[in-house]
Amino acid sequence: MKKKRFLFFISQDYSFPILRPLQEEIRRRGDEVKWFLYGDEITYEKLNKDEVRIPSIEEVISYNPHAVFVPGNVVPSFIPGLKVEVFHGLPGNKTRKDGQIYHYIIRGMFDLYCTQGPESTQKFQELAREYGYFSVVETGWCKLDPLFCYSFQKEEKKRKTIFFASTFSPRFSKARELRPFVEYMIKKYDFNWYITLHPKMNKEIVASYRMLETYEGVQFVDATQLYGAFRESDLMLCDTSSIVYEFLTQLKPVVTFQTEKEEPAIINVRQLDMLEEKILDILKNPEINYETILNSVSKIHPYRDGKSSSRVLDAVDEMLEGRLKPPQKKPLNILRNFKLRKELGYWKFFHS
Length: 352
Fold this sequence. Notes:
Blueprint: E1 5-10, H1 15-28, E2 32-37, H2 57-63, E3 67-70, E4 82-85, E5 112-115, H3 118-131, E6 135-138, H4 145-148, E7 161-166, H5 175-188, E8 192-197, H6 203-210, E9 218-220, H7 227-232, E10 235-238, H8 243-248, E11 254-257, E12 267-269, H9 275-284, H10 290-300, H11 308-320, H12 334-344
Parallel strand pairs: 1-2, 1-3, 3-4, 4-5, 5-6, 7-8, 7-10, 8-9, 10-11, 11-12
């Protein structure tokens, strides 16, 4: 049997940890995968030595992939192969100003949506019936496979550990407001801290948090290497970011500060002077919200077997073999494809 050729199409650093578990499964099956990186927001040096990068869009066309996996929102139609959306986050509570949740915006570019749990599957299936030109398969999220591919050995720790994270968007981020509070907590309590900030975060804010590493027990974590810190942490403190749902899949508590949309599984605090007390309460009673978290996770991402990447590839195989086919063709999407042609500098309209 001939090897299948797969392509990872990315423009942001957050894509690396999402796609690497998928890459591992592709290789395990004896197929091949190459990466195409574009834009000025990606760090080319983050590719590992054994990862193959295609340097030009012309060579991408020549590679002729069977399927293209995309964690982002767009992919050009002029690249061959099935276009597969694997998402850059779990369904979150970020909405546009018109109230539409970003996670469910349809841009007419994908053949297959690999959804992460029953909640998003139901919504995308409704959208598939409405639009008619894409298929939906619930697979779980490939990024989370490494979080559950290890032996669960609970060790007694003397020091509690807090994981702090914040998004970059000025509309949603509370990093600036929380900076003095975090330092206050570091000084007052004998806790360990992991800190991560969105790769697009304001550099001045990042520098101010980096200074906290001078304190004992504080470690800044790269946004592409979070899961070791996740496992060691007892609680997450955050704002409005989809990272809270990644942490919740461990069935551990999350405290948010002034998040945009409240929900039962996440304990939100509106007043800064109440935040310390709430964190201490939860660290003393970590099971206090367990059933609510379990109920939420069962809807968002119930898979804890580390096999989501395998399910993604099974769904792609179904589509390649013609057993999974939407009733209509995708729209031409002329404007979006023109913008991508301009961005990528590709103006051939016929492939030889």
